[in-house]
């Protein structure tokens, strides 16, 4: 089941900026990352989902309801990017206020069950100690945590987070990552709009790339990074003793097995080389390592490719820039 | 719809808006009371004491309520000029508007939140001012007149609130504050001009100007009808027709005009709801 399903969703500002013809599906129970450089239209898209912007054209269904209807936001938790809360209130009061905005009656928000819910939610984001302190004295990170608590208060089925870790320190970011994973495990769909690619790599099952207001790619992270749909990963090897005919010797020795996906990235005159291969898992990577050693190479380093998302991000943006310039 | 009533009270109290406003209001009322006491002491020694006392008590009541409505209006302008765009600019509206509440309900809830406390402040001002003038001058009060005047006195700032909130959907905070203050000033000015010119016969051009400003922002007209009711309606209000210069009430807004103000407020609220519903935040 798709939690978010858009077709040709468009929103521009006097014909410029924004996003155009975005067709995107987000399945239930996954963590979905929306990527793109500044000005790509990510915030415009997110604001349309949150009901803050009206689309110019296109169609969208969120949580089974047409976008724009209040019912579509009944089970939505939303953390905006550049938000502020009433700094004269306390976190408990903000959550009670949002409980009312979410449809609870005054007596519901005064009930022991709701008060307990408020305490638990604040504890979940690490604000239990500050529950009755005025927000005016909060750091940016504490405000961010409160924003997250507000988004999670009413048991949402879909959580849209716009740069959730931007104001957090490394410990805070780690905590938020753990929290988002727990939400996914509970079946909550998380839609993440972030610049932090390591968060996307660590968390997201699926991602989409927006550039210049257009959707350039979307799918599972593995599909996007390696073009593979078999669940494999790209592995990187650093070896010594490399000769010009070593690659053909290894491929011959492998006899048409998966080592055929092996390719040479770079090699220098001293015999040092970097190779890359798409493998199904550690076992297959280990098999390749054994082949290298059998062919007289020294294996210096072996492991999954690091920063591959960053490489992909830069490649996508650069290819589009090249296309634009042409 | 009522969630903003307590939220607005917390904002007004914790941002010390109420405290500062109440302290300055009490100071103003004290000064007014002391001044009134001194002035009434002087008039008691004059000949034709009874008639003079009656006229002076009416004049003091008019003056007192004029400044009271002035205070209430400024309370409205400063507390509501950034209701929509101000909260949009500082990010307060983002998490709120994403909740499953229709925008028109959110707009009306915000209006109600302000309206309750504006009405409360205006009520305190009215009661305090009437009580001071009554105590110092013996101004005659009749329950029916007092109630009608009181309701109209509360209605005046609510009209201004409705206009200010509509402006806040379209204009930035400062721009809206200036716009609403200028419109309020224009309505006030036209009322004062009408009062001054009332002694010199009729002026058709001026009457049209006063009518037009009254239609654009009927706050001054409602205030003058409130005065008329407090003065005992047709029994005594004639005395205020020309005697009080700029504070005179030469033409009393009709019941039809009061009905117009209700339609005016409903229309402005409708336009505000519609504009807020279509606004990108």
Concise account of the structure shown:
Chain A is of the alpha/beta class and 326 residues long. Chain A has helices at 42-49, 91-101, 106-109, 112-124, 140-152, 170-185, 197-203, 221-226, 246-254, 282-294, 308-325; strands at residues 2-13, 16-27, 31-35, 57-62, 65-66, 76-79, 158-162, 189-193, 206-211, 214-220, 233-240, 263-267, 273-279, 298-304.
Describe what you observe in this structure.
The complex is a heterodimer of chains A (326) and B (281). Chain A has 326 residues and is α/β, with parallel strands linked by helices. Chain A contains eleven helices and 14 strands. The longest helix of chain A is centred in the last third of the chain and has 18 residues, at 308-325. Chain B is mostly helical. The two termini of chain B are 21 Å apart.
Notable features of this structure?
heterodimer; A: 326 residues; alpha/beta; 6-stranded mixed sheet; 4-stranded antiparallel sheet; elongated; B: 281 residues; mainly alpha; globular
Number of helices of chain A: 11
Structural class of chain A: alpha/beta
**Mean pLDDT reading of chain A:** 86
Beta-strand percentage of chain A?
A: 25-35%
Instruction: Provide the helix percentage of chain A.
Output: 25-40%
Radius of gyration of chain B, CA atoms, in whole angstroms: 20 Å
- The arrangement of helices and strands of chain B along the chain is HHHHHHHHHHH
Number of domains of chain B: 1
**C-alpha termini separation of chain A:** 40 Å
Q: Can you tell me the residue ranges of chain A where pLDDT is under 50 for at least 5 consecutive residues?
A: none
Strand order of the largest sheet of chain A: 6-7-8-3-9-10
Largest sheet of chain B, described in full? none
């Amino acid at each position: 089941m798709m939690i978010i399903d858009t077709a040709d969703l468009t929103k521009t500002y006097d014909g410029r900026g924004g996003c155009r013809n975005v067709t995107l599906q987000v399945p239930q129970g996954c963590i979905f990352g929306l990527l793109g450089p500044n000005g790509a239209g990510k915030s415009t898209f997110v604001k349309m989902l949150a009901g803050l912007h009206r689309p110019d054209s296109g169609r969208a269904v969120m949580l089974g309801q047409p976008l724009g209807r209040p019912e579509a936001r009944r089970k939505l938790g939303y953390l905006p990017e550049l938000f502020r809360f009433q700094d004269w209130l306390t976190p408990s009061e903000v959550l009670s206020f949002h409980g009312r905005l979410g449809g609870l009656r005054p007596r519901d928000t005064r009930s022991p069950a709701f008060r307990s819910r408020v305490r638990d939610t604040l504890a979940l984001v690490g604000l239990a100690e500050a529950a009755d302190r005025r927000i005016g004295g909060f750091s940016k990170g504490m405000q961010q945590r409160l924003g997250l608590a507000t988004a999670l208060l009413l048991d949402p089925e879909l959580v849209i987070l716009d740069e959730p870790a931007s104001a957090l320190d490394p410990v805070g970011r780690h905590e938020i990552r753990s929290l988002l994973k727990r939400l996914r495990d509970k079946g909550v769909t998380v839609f993440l709009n972030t610049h932090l690619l390591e968060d996307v790599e660590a968390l997201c099952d699926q991602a989409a790339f927006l550039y210049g207001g257009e959707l350039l790619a979307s799918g599972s992270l593995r599909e996007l990074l390696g073009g593979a749909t078999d669940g494999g990963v790209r592995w990187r090897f650093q070896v010594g003793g490399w000769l010009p005919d070593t690659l053909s010797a290894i491929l011959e020795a492998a006899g048409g097995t998966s080592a055929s996906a092996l390719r040479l990235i770079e090699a220098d005159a001293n015999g040092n080389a970097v190779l890359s291969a798409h493998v199904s898992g550690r076992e297959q990577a280990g098999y390749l390592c054994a082949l290298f050693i059998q062919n007289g190479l020294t294996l210096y380093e072996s492991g999954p490719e690091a920063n591959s998302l960053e490489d992909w991000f830069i490649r996508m943006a650069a290819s589009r820039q090249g296309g634009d310039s042409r | 719809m009522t969630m903003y009533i307590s939220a607005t009270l917390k904002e007004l109290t914790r941002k010390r808006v109420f405290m500062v406003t109440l302290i300055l209001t009490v100071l103003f009322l004290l000064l007014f009371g002391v001044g009134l006491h001194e002035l009434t002491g002087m008039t008691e020694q004059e000949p034709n004491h009874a008639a003079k006392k009656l006229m002076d008590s009416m004049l003091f009541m008019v003056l007192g309520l004029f400044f009271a409505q002035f205070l209430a209006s400024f309370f409205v302008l400063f507390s509501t000029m950034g209701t929509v765009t101000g909260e949009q600019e500082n990010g307060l509206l983002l998490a709120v508007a994403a909740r499953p509440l229709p925008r028109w309900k959110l707009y009306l809830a915000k209006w109600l939140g302000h309206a309750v406390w504006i009405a409360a402040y205006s009520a305190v001002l009215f009661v305090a001012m009437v009580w001071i003038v009554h105590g110092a001058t013996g101004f005659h009060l009749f329950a029916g007149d007092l109630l009608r005047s009181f309701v109209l006195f509360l209605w005046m700032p609510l009209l201004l609130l409705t206009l200010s909130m509509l402006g806040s959907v379209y204009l930035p905070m400062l721009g809206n504050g200036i716009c609403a203050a200028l419109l309020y000033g224009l309505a006030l000015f036209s009322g004062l001009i009408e009062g001054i010119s009332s002694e010199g016969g009729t002026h058709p051009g001026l009457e049209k100007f006063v009518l037009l400003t009254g239609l654009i922002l009927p706050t001054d007209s409602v205030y003058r009808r409130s005065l008329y009711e407090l003065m005992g309606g047709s029994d005594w209000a004639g005395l205020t027709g020309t005697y009080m210069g700029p504070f005179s009430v030469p033409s009393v807004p009709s019941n039809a005009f009061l009905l117009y103000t209700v339609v005016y407020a409903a229309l402005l609220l409708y336009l505000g709801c519609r504009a807020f519903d279509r606004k990108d935040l």
